[in-house]
UniProtKB/TrEMBL annotation:
Record key words, sorted: Membrane, Mitochondrion, Mitochondrion inner membrane, Transmembrane, Transmembrane helix
Stated name of the protein: MICOS complex subunit
GO cellular component, one term: mitochondrial crista junction
Gene source species: Naumovozyma dairenensis (strain ATCC 10597 / BCRC 20456 / CBS 421 / NBRC 0211 / NRRL Y-12639) (Saccharomyces dairenensis)
Transmembrane segments: 139-161
Length: 228
């Protein structure tokens, strides 16, 4: 049988005898001169108001509720801010990983070129250049390994080398446009000079070879005339 401890009292059955003296509860509550009321009021301020929840008396101090609410709000904001930073860092990492993977995939477009053997040959050529000029000056120690490594790379993997060259040119043009412009001017001059030298050599070879061709045509006739 369930017992209700918070039932309404039955004055007749319980024999409650009303007193002739009445107490003004409102006045007693507002009267701060009584020491007991002062202590009760101070205790109520510290412990909070008494609330009855599901038959249980619970006190909730306002200052404690405000403190817990403020700390919970700060903790929730900190957790949300931390999660946002973690998500941003994860997104940046995933984007960089995808960019690197896509770049490597775009560079190695020819499946016939074996990536691991080609890189191994390039590394061997680079180390060979370093060994050959290990006791030379700084310029040789820096340039010879680079020249040998790049030359070997261009021979063993020509398609990948061209892709890397175009990628390097695009990066230089994006981050160092002035340097790229000067480099293009120098390459144009070298290309023009090479074409001029090639055409000059062809013309000179034609000029030099004409007398020999004529002599080669006269020589059989002269041999026939002398034999007669």
């Amino acid at each position: 049988m369930e017992i209700n401890f918070y039932r309404e009292p039955d004055l007749v059955k319980e024999g409650v005898i009303p007193s002739a003296d009445t107490i003004d509860l409102t006045a007693a509550k507002n009267d701060d001169t009584t020491p007991q009321l002062k202590i009760q009021k101070k205790t109520q301020e510290i412990l909070g108001d008494n609330n009855l929840i599901d038959g249980i008396s619970i006190r909730n101090p306002n200052y404690l509720n405000d403190y817990i609410r403020s700390q919970r709000t700060k903790l929730a904001g900190f957790v949300e801010k931390t999660n946002g930073k973690i998500n941003d860092a994860t997104s940046r990492y995933i984007d960089k990983e995808q960019n690197i993977t896509t770049t490597i995939k775009d560079l190695h477009t020819n499946p016939e070129e074996k990536l691991l053997p080609g890189l191994s040959y390039t590394a061997v050529a680079f180390m060979t250049g370093s060994i050959l000029v290990s006791k030379r000056n700084f310029m040789l120690r820096y340039t010879v390994p680079m020249v040998l490594g790049i030359s070997c790379f261009s021979i063993v993997m020509p398609c990948t080398f061209n892709n890397v060259k175009h990628l390097t040119y695009n990066l230089e043009n994006k981050y160092m446009p002035n340097f790229t412009r000067r480099q293009d001017m120098i390459n144009d001059k070298i290309r023009k000079n090479a074409a001029f030298i090639r055409s000059s050599m062809v013309k000179n070879m034609d000029i030099i070879s004409k007398p020999f061709y004529k002599l080669q045509g006269y020589l059989p006739k002269w041999m026939n005339d002398t034999s007669k």
